[in-house]
Amino acid sequence: MARGRRDAKRQATQAREESDRQRALEDRRAAEARAARERQLIKRWGSAHGALNRLGSLSKELDRLHRQEANLLAERDELVNVLRANGQTWSALSSRTNLSRQALMKRIDQASTDGDVAPASGSSQG
Hints:
- The protein is an all-alpha fold and about 130 residues long.
- The chain is about 85% helix and about 0% strand.
- It has helices at about 1-45, 50-85, 90-95, 100-115.
- The longest helix is centred in the first third of the chain and has 44 residues, at about 1-45.
- The chain is elongated, with a radius of gyration of 32 Å.
């Protein structure tokens, strides 16, 4: 019995030591990966400060592009509305916008309920 307990304790100790070695190896690999990312950061942007400056400029540019996109979408929706009111078919508008007729109708319906665009006159026939 005593021998079995000693073997069990020895196996448990060996398992703990192996687990500790694995954890230390994973920690070393994580530290190496962090160091590699930092070297890449310095290589690409010069420093963490340079990377932060780039991040700020990218964010500003993305905000500008989002505003521009919103303006273009509003203009497109307005044109679709005006053209529908002047008798253009959903199919013709769909082919010009690369949107399905259903998507166009849905955008116009949403815009009219939001108050952004006046509802198109006429029926929703294609």
